[in-house]
Design goal:
32% of the residues lie in helices and 32% in strands. It has 206 residues and is an alpha/beta fold.
């Protein structure tokens, strides 16, 4: 299921991220704001359980998260979306998956994995700014499922219809949360209109 988050502050911030002349420092700061909005929406369905708490006046009902939260950024650009999640769930565990896209085949190549074993019973959020062909996202989800993950949400800034279709075909159980569904992929598998290479723009390496 695809959720395109609609919020006026998100639309304004996404415009800043799309603008080619935005300095990487401003890009990084704006991305932190965007990640908070996306995380807030993605975390909306977290299960809670009732507990008892003591106010200054009396005992009453309170709530706590019923399951652990695990955030898995796809390196390197996915690191830019982690802060939004740990802002709201500071106890969240953070794993890492390293993948890059082969420039000829446009398919993902794995090079690093550090995944907490708690993914088996946790709500798992895979974060990566771009959902283009869906290759890296699908590869990351396959890897996590092989490690026992059963409840996965994919969160991105910008998605292409081709990437959404691929995830919906191969992983219909995975929810997709994005700030924008863009027009298409071009012949080089770049999202149009897109926002360029998110990793380069986050880290100032373009």
């Amino acid at each position: 299921m695809l959720t395109v988050v609609d919020h006026p502050l998100l639309r304004r911030a996404l415009s800043t991220l799309r603008t080619a002349s935005t300095p990487y420092g401003d890009f990084r700061r704006t991305l932190t704001d965007v990640s908070s909005i996306l995380a807030y929406e993605a975390l909306r369905t977290l299960p809670v359980e009732e507990t008892r708490i003591q106010t200054p006046l009396e005992e009453t009902a309170g709530y706590r998260l019923a399951r652990e939260v695990v955030v898995i950024p796809v390196l390197r650009a996915g690191l830019g979306l982690v802060d939004g999640f740990v802002r709201y769930v500071p106890e969240a565990r953070v794993g890492h998956l390293g993948m890059y896209r082969d420039e000829q085949s446009h398919e993902p190549v794995d090079y690093y994995s550090n995944v907490p074993p708690q993914v088996r019973d946790a709500r798992v959020f895979v974060v990566d700014p771009m959902l283009a062909t869906g290759g890296s996202a699908s590869g990351a989800i396959n890897h996590l499922k092989s490690r026992g993950a059963r409840d996965i949400t994919f969160v991105c800034l910008v998605a292409a219809p081709e990437g959404v279709a691929r995830l919906e075909e191969y992983h219909p159980d995975v929810q997709i949360v994005t700030a924008a569904l863009d027009r298409e992929l071009d012949e080089n598998a770049f999202i149009r209109p897109g926002l360029g290479d998110a990793g380069d723009r986050i880290f100032g390496t373009e």
